[in-house]
Each structure stands twice: as C-alpha cells, then as structure tokens.
Specification:
This protein is α/β, with parallel strands linked by helices. It has 9 helices and 8 strands. GO terms for molecular function: hydrolase activity.
Length: 264
C-alpha cells in the first residue's frame, strides 16, 4: 500500500475501487482498519481511500508532530500524490480536523463533507465544552472506553465481539497515544469568519447513545457550519460506522449520491 512523506511524518493510506474519490478519515481510537465495514460497500462504486492519520498505526511521526494542525496539509499531499483535483470526505470524530479544515480553507478540493460523532474544530463555547468533556474521557489511562462509554450498551450486550474488535483495532496505534488536548489549540479553531461564503455540501450526524460526547450535541455543531444538515442515529452511540454499519452506510450513500456521481 502507498506511503508518502509530508512535514515530518510518513503517511500511510490505502486505495480501494474506482470512481469518484471518497476519503474515510478515522477518529482518535481508529485507523484504516476501522473502516472495514465501509470499504467493501463503498468501493463498489467509488474510489475509497482510507488514511492512517499521522501518529496512528502505520503513519509514525515524532510525538511533537502528531498534531491536527497538519491534517489538512497531509490530506492535500495525498490528493496530490494521487492526482486528485477534488474528493468527498467522510470523517469520524477527530477526522473532522482534517475534513472540515480542508472544506473551510480549500473548498475547491471538497465535493461534499460528511462528519459523524464530532464537535469539529468549529468554535463556540458550547461546542468547546463538549470537546473538553470528550477529551477528558479520552485521556483517562484506559481511554475511558473499556466500560462501553460512547456505545449503545444494548449493542454491546447483543454482540460483545464487535466491541472487543473495536478495542483491539485501537491497540494497533502506537504509544504514546494521541493527546486529544491538541484538538483545542487556538491555532486550529475555525471561527465564523472562516466560514464566510462557505458552500461545501455538509452533513453532521451523531448517535442518541453518545455519552462519550453529549447526545444531541451535533445539532448545535451544525449551526456553526453554514448550510449544514443533520442526521441522528437512534440506535448508535459515538461510532455509528462501527456500531450500526448498515444504517451508517445507507445514510452516507444517500448523501454522497446527491453530490457526486457513482461509478455506473
């Protein structure tokens, strides 16, 4: 699988399928493998590109360079390596620090943007309160997730193997783990001025059982992004793509089809 170097980090990514490019950008507990329930589905009609963000799994870098301020540059570097003029982006949690940054600052490169389970870097005091809550949980020694925080507990009871697999995928990321406090750096906040003229088709979703963040917080986050649509997963928590993949894939598929042409 291809790798490139950008601003002090090796970047690992995978390309599956053909058609309009769609990036899948993982969250703080994920990596390329986390999208195993999306890649087979979407690669049938799109070029599905998964990425290990810098500092995760196969994209090693010095701890001081494992920072969201590089994510926009990293994604654009991959796009240049693949000769992609534009792409759609599907982002989970931390992944929004890549996708929304590109959409706000390089909108001509983004066909559409779908975000799940994320306060995003769009700043408001209310939004930052949600982000602080999630960061405090994430930075606990266990990652705060061993007891199912962020998940629909009934789904764990029904299929504990799925939750176990989620935890194992996270363990593939190197130590020290990502410092989520970096997500709140002033240098990467997106303010209302950064969204002047914003016209990238955008949807943000969240799960009713997301107590890793705050259930329903995505509704407020959407108000900070001009024209942003919302969707709520009634049976999922923070990671609908992992917990309820069929529902997630259907919603994202319908969203993408409105703005990009799938392979015939």
């Amino acid at each position: 699988m291809p790798t490139i170097s950008n601003e002090g980090s090796k970047l690992y990514y995978e390309v599956h399928g053909e058609g309009h490019p769609v990036f899948f950008i993982h969250g703080g507990g994920g990596n390329t493998i986390a999208w195993f329930q999306q890649v087979p589905f979407f690669s049938r009609k799109y070029k599905a590109i998964t990425v290990d963000l810098r500092g995760f799994k196969n994209s090693p870098c010095p701890p001081e360079l494992s920072h969201p301020r590089f994510y926009r540059s990293d994604m654009l570097a991959i796009m240049e390596a693949e000769n992609l003029a534009e792409a759609a982006f599907v982002c989970q949690s931390l992944g929004a620090w890549a996708g929304l940054a590109i959409a706000a600052k390089s909108p001509e490169r983004v066909s559409c943007l779908y975000i799940n389970g994320s306060p995003t870097p769009a700043y408001s005091e209310e939004n930052w309160g949600v982000l602080r809550h999630g960061s405090d949980v994430f930075m606990q020694p266990s990652g705060g997730r061993g007891d199912g925080i962020g998940w629909n507990r009934k789904l764990i009871e029904k299929n504990p193997a799925t939750h176990f697999l989620y935890q194992q995928i996270k363990q593939l990321n190197p130590s020290p783990k990502f410092d989520s406090n970096k997500m709140m750096d002033d240098s990467i906040k997106l303010h209302p001025r950064d969204f002047e003229g914003y016209a990238v088709p955008t949807m943000i979703s969240g799960g009713d059982h997301d107590d890793f963040l705050i259930p329903g917080s995505h509704i407020h986050t959407a108000t900070l992004i001009p024209g942003c649509e919302t969707y709520t997963y009634r049976d999922a928590g923070h990671s609908a793509y992992f917990e309820t993949p069929d529902a997630f894939n259907a919603v994202v598929d319908q969203f993408l089809a409105r703005f990009v042409k799938p392979k015939a």
